[in-house]
Amino acid sequence: MRAWLQTGFGGPEVRRLTEVAAPAPAADEVTVRMLAVALNRLDVLQRREPVIPGMTVPHVAGMDLIGEVVAAGADGPELLGVVVLIDPVVSCGRCELCLAETPTYCEAFQTIGSTRDGGMAELVTVPARNCTVVEVAADDSDSLARLAAVPVAGATAWRGLLGAGGLRAGETVVIPGAGSGLGAAGIQIALAHGAEVIALVSGAAKKERAERGGGVRVIDRSATDDWVAEVLALTGGRGADLVWDHVGGRFLGQALRATRAGGRVVLSGTTDGLDTELHLPDLYQRGRSIIGHGSYSRADMAAAVAAFGTGRFEVVIDSVWRFEQLPEAEARLESNDFFGKIVVLGPSFSPSTAPERKDAA
Predict the structure, then answer these.
(1) Total domain count, the chain
(2) CA 180, 181, 182: angle at the middle one, nearest 5?
């Protein structure tokens, strides 16, 4: 089979389309023919360096995956020919932590597309318990692309805002990266639950795009020296009830200052850096809280899939690419000149049936 195989760490040249042996499913696994895979920032970060403990090369990336089951192990369920959406979090499923719906704390924890091979290939093996059956045709590229965009962004946003963050109707939440798939998903979830949203973007074009749907106040970080001051101005000096920090780095200290007294910051990601500096009085003198995102559960994933998959929320797609165009799709992700999720279709979509590139309107 063909796979985009990463053989080292560095630029785009370390990932090449290569013939590799097809994987065989273990007893509790199924083999899935990839129909669409949505890109994540981690795909680029771990191409450059092994940011996730346990990630090694050679490696096949791709966490957000939808595909058709073509084979099953001895203990696998009868799923042949069924289209399934994949939860990338793999754990033992039996220990106390798994049974408590915290699979990322399991000692056997792995991630499809990071610490085990993922969806940037014609075929991938996954545990059968990680599959959610979805009602979509295997040749419906539009629906496949939208569903592929759901798992990581949808479940992370659901957990970060509603689970860890406890976001309630009437509260004001700050969501950075409104142009990212994660930020766009978070905005949809927050609005649907009655929150007031202040979105952060970089650039006038992204500001216009974020404002297009209505109901969101948008701050262009590239047009101000102090986005915290802008948040305080928009909230009458009070600050936000919640800041959802899915970027990390120096943003965390700024997020604290943007919250009200007794407010909270949920940390859900570190794409902008693993380390930060805090002015501690901002934390203890004002009674603010920093909350770790923690493990999203299968229930979080199921809720997100149900909400986005049934059209309750909008899935924001930036562009859709053919399998052979992965380098171009990844370059768009690295450019930061996108809005929404970037999706690569499976190789079954030939040049005659797949779009050259389809940008969001």
Answers:
(1) 2
(2) 90
Same domain? 20 vs 142: yes
34, 119 Cβ separation under 8 angstroms = yes
Distance CA 332, CA 133 (A): 30
Alpha carbon distance 194, 257 (integer Å): 24
Where residue 190 falls (left for φ over 0; alpha for ψ -120 to 50; beta otherwise) is alpha
Is there a contact between 1 and 71 (Cβ–Cβ < 8 Å)? no
User: Mean pLDDT of successive 10-residue segments in the chain (361 residues)?
Assistant: 96 96 94 96 92 91 96 85 94 89 88 95 95 92 92 90 94 92 90 93 87 86 92 96 92 93 91 83 89 84 81 84 95 89 90 49 35
**Same domain, residue pair 329 and 283:** no
Task: In whole angstroms, give the CA distance from residue 336 to residue 180.
Answer: 9
Last residue in a domain, options 292, 326, 348: 292
Given this model, what pLDDT does residue 354 score?
Answer: 47
pLDDT of residue 350: 61
In angstroms, the CA 171 to CA 158 distance is 16
Same domain, 335 and 241: no
Domain that holds residue 65: 2-149+316-359
From CA 127, how far away is CA 116, in angstroms rounded?
A: 12
Residue 333 lies in a domain: yes
pLDDT tens-digit readout, 53-76: 889 999 999 999 999 999 999 887
What length does the chain have? 361
137, amino acid identity = A
pLDDT of residue 274: 80
Indicate if 83 and 164 belong to the same structural domain. no
Residues 102 and 160 occupy one common structural domain: no
CA R_g for the chain? 20
pTM: 0.87
Measured between alpha carbons, how far is 278 from 242 in angstroms, rounded to an integer? 17
Cα distances (Å, whole numbers) of residue 335 to 21, 39, 198, 206: 33, 13, 24, 13
pLDDT tens digits, one per residue of 301-313: 888 888 877 777 7
